[in-house]
Amino acid sequence: MNWSEIKQQIYFYDGSLRDVIVQDTTASDWEKWIDFVNENCKVDWLNGKTVKNESKIKFDIVNEFFEGNEDYSSSANILLDKILMNVHFFKSTEIKFDIDPKDFHTMEHHEKFINLLGAMAKAIGKPVLITGENEPERILIKISQE
């Protein structure tokens, strides 16, 4: 596919975001994902326990929330060049973050992002999906861990 086709089929502007999802996750998957993101991206994480922003996500704090300490929650902005990924730690069984299609302007942006997701899938050992916003059944891209 060329950039025009990719832009039209994946990063089209319709006012919605795209979701990036890893399904059926465990605490171990989250720990691998957090380690991967901390190593490979610029991170701005709101530590819900201290209510302070930090440059690395702390798995133990996120896991406390997943294990039932709902007194706090956290979120993170993850940056890959000019691509912003917004993560909300809602549930332990699914890694989910969103991207704005307006952040993708060239084939280079797309390729960097896909390469990151491929490495992420390999690190976690599970496929990564790009779907329509709140439409997990509408898979736009599936990236295998191979």
Please give a structural write-up.
- Helix content is 32%, strand content 32%.
- It has 146 residues and is of the alpha+beta class.
- The protein has an eight-stranded antiparallel β-sheet with strand order 3-2-4-5-6-1-7-8.
- Helix 2 (27-40) crosses helix 4 (107-124).
- It is globular.
- The two termini are 21 Å apart.
How would the blueprint of this fold be written?
Layout: H1 3-9, E1 18-23, H2 27-40, E2 42-47, E3 52-54, H3 59-66, E4 75-80, E5 83-88, E6 94-99, H4 107-124, E7 128-132, E8 135-143
Helix pairs in contact: 2-4
CATH architecture: 2-Layer Sandwich
In terms of per-residue confidence, which ranges show pLDDT below 50 for 5 or more consecutive residues? none
Helix content: 25-40%
Which strand order does the major sheet show?
3-2-4-5-6-1-7-8
SSE order, one letter for each helix or strand: HEHEEHEEEHEE
- Distance between the amino and carboxyl termini: 21 Å
- Estimated structural class: alpha+beta
CATH fold annotation: TATA-Binding Protein
- The beta-strand count equals 8
Gist of the model:
The protein has helices at residues 3-9, 27-40, 59-66, 107-124, and strands spanning 18-23, 42-47, 52-54, 75-80, 83-88, 94-99, 128-132, 135-143. The protein is α+β, with helices and mostly antiparallel strands and 146 residues long.
